[in-house]
Amino acid sequence: MNIELTDRPRRLRRDGIRSLVSETSVTAQDLVAPVFIDATTTTRTPIESMPGHERVPIEDAVTRVEEIRETGVEAVMVFGIPAEKDERGSRAWASDGVVQQAVRRITAETDAYVITDVCLCEYTTHGHCGVVESDAATDPTLTVKNDKTLELLIKTAVSHVEAGAEMVAPSSMTDGMITAIRTALDETGHTDIPIMSYAAKYESAFYGPFRDAADGAPAFGDRRHYQMDPANSQEAKREVRLDVEAGADVLMVKPALAYLDIVNTVSSNFDRPVAAYNVSGEYAMVHAAADRGWVDLEATAVESLIAMKRAGADLIITYFAEKLANQL
Ligand SMILES: [Zn+2]
């Protein structure tokens, strides 16, 4: 039988040519490694649902970041677990708060690029990302007071930058947070500090293990009144457009794997770098399956990161950063 094929894509899949025509690559320089600094402990505490990750005391912050830098990953995102919590989350903006102390040490003693997560949920007794008033317990739709939260986010962001943070990443999905933080940073002389907005952050079941890691589960209700509905994609464009207009420098989509369409939408529609947050649940699933021998840990993780880049991500925040950096 004589079949005439006009094109044969397999010609370019042979060894030697495959890598020349490869469209996407991931390098250690694309990755940001999250670190958890814990003011409640003097020893490193493994995070059970995130194998290989630990909460580290402030004294170990520099060592922890040096371990990451040795793998070739150059940027870290710092999360804090405060020594004590209150209604308003006041330890979030304390100049001797856990993030502020850690960032001062990290920037003084390492060359890491330091990004801080700006939110209140790890610092409040109720675990919500902002100001909660007494009516919230009876009517959960009122959980977080948007405009009153802005003022606290501003204080937190400015205190992080004053401690040495090189980029701030507000994650609370408070309407107006980018405008408020940009204005406050400019007014305090920090015009050169970029903002990475958690621009399209979904109310996701994939965050479960993080809540172990950062001790930030809400004491009542959930976050669906301020985080986005997983069903929505047009709304992501609206959220992102608002943040672009407000001066966001980097646009983040969170989670990543189940939201690659959103990563692609943001990358195609906006001329700002796009970050994908490969969240704790995505990490934990791969680990759990690999532990049972059902998937290959590293191959699955690398393929996931390539998929995020292919979808349009410029940078990826991932718990796999250290583990994979050497082989990328
Ligand atoms: Zn939060």
From TrEMBL:
Homooctamer. GO terms for biological process: protoporphyrinogen IX biosynthetic process. It comes from the Archaea. 5-aminolevulinate 2 binds at residues 280, 319. Zn(2+) binds at residues 119, 121, 129. The keyword Magnesium applies. Keywords: Heme biosynthesis, Lyase, Magnesium, Metal-binding, Porphyrin biosynthesis, Zinc. One of its GO terms (cellular component) is cytosol. It catalyses: 2 5-aminolevulinate = porphobilinogen + 2 H2O + H(+). This is Delta-aminolevulinic acid dehydratase. The active site is at 201 (schiff-base intermediate with substrate), 254 (schiff-base intermediate with substrate). 5-aminolevulinate 1 binds at residues 211, 223. GO terms for molecular function: porphobilinogen synthase activity; zinc ion binding. It holds the Pfam family ALAD. InterPro entries: ALAD, ALAD_AS, Aldolase_TIM. Its EC number is 4.2.1.24. Pathway: Porphyrin-containing compound metabolism; protoporphyrin-IX biosynthesis; coproporphyrinogen-III from 5-aminolevulinate: step 1/4. Belongs to the ALAD family. Mg(2+) binds at residue 239. The keyword Zinc applies.
